[in-house]
Amino acid sequence: MNAKIGRHAKRITWTTKYVIFAFANLATLIAVMLYVDGTSPVHGDHLNLWDTSIFRLAGWVWADGGVPYVDYWDHKGPLIFFVNLIGAVVGGPDHGVFYIDVVLMGITMLFLWKTLAAIGDQLSVAVRTLIMWITVMRTAYLLVPNMNVTETVCMPFLAAALWLVLRDMRRMHEDQNASVAIITAYVQGLACAASLLTRATNALPVFVCVLVLVVMLCMRRQWMPLLGCAVACIGGFLTLVVPFSVYFALHGAFGEFVYGTLTFNLSYAVGTASDVKPGITVVARILAVPVAAIVVAVIHMLRNRSVDAERMMLLISGIALAVLFVRTEMFLHYAVVAAQLIPVILAMAAGWFRSRAIQLTPLIVIIAMLLGVTVYQERASHGNPYNNDAVQAAVEQSNGSLYLYNLPAEAYLRYDLKPLSPYANLQDWQGKYSSDLQSRILADYGSAKAEYVLVAKTNDMKQPIIQPVLDSKYQLIQTFENTPDGPLQLYQRR
């Protein structure tokens, strides 16, 4: 009887410790995101955060009864718009999405912890906790002050997919009769769909995992499990894709959905590699994790004089991500999808040392460095609330009958202006990657629905795409010099 009471008390003690541990990590996450995320309530309204502003505007338009790609267009999948729709409904377009991002990052941390439990069970709780937080801080460092991006939405799916893959790899390594679980295949399809519905290139780590699992099943001649996994993977993919496809089909916008999610991005992917020449520090920050994955995988193979599925998955992932990052524009947030490999890399490296002090010391140094550079990056890039007196004057003069051309998405949110064209911002920047998009922009603005057009000049095109429309249907009535968005020209319909 006393033994039973003792075991029961011990279970309660461990459960209490687990709950306290979980809440402590959640509280720390909230504190970190309150500081680094520009959409958090502790920061001012209407910070001009570019991608974040675009997604918030998309969510606001959707919440106001509009349809993505029809009433507001951007070359991303609708899942990121949907997250911002929920944010706009929950807490308004300025700060609502912050609460959703906290939930997404919390779920990501849960699966990072499960990954560490699966592959680093020999490591202490302190070591695993530090590794988890290094992953979170690395993500924050790459995104600050822009946590509301496609990668944040994908990370819970990618982290869950990787955890299940590693769990099955361990099980199959220990038991030659074991196979890939159906739920693992299903979640791979789910993660692939989440990537497609945000930014398709986010799916690369999933493709690598699926490739390794397929090879393992083929080598074991487990043909029926392979067929079952294929069906489950397709089912997971359709779970997310079908509802969005049906929604857009019912609103007569399926073609626009496909164009914005896939078709345009083919032109964008081809045209971006030579467009940006990043500095060496940017290259180092982006390639750090893929290179570390390659190095650690190779060292582990040489040390053990053997090759297994985990090491091959890590090696192929590192190579594939490095090639992807080099071949596309080197925006820091693109590298976030590699962060899920950090627990694998550091757990593998920490396992080389038996001394807990040797395991902990470099991890403490890494997280201290990440904390320092994140604070510095936040102070350097946080920005100020968007204000442009010329834009405000044009909005008031037009009574809302106004196109904004080449102006930031935040201008619509700041001055409560409803977009009158789906191509509402970044027109010339997006248009330079696709002649078809240029034709779409020119045709839409050719309808001259708005009485006024406020145009900012950029270096993306020799002249604005809509210049023929401005010449034939509008006349220049005012020029604004030295505004926060550069020189602006206000046109009025003839």
Automatic annotation (TrEMBL):
The protein's name: Glycosyltransferase RgtA/B/C/D-like domain-containing protein
The keyword Membrane belongs to this UniProt entry's keyword annotation: yes
Keyword NADP assigned: no
Transmembrane segments: 12-36, 96-113, 149-166, 203-219, 226-250, 282-302, 309-326, 332-353, 360-377
Keywords: Membrane, Transmembrane, Transmembrane helix
Signal sequence interval, chain numbering: none
Organism: Bifidobacterium tissieri
Organism placement in taxonomy: Bacteria, Bacillati, Actinomycetota, Actinomycetes, Bifidobacteriales
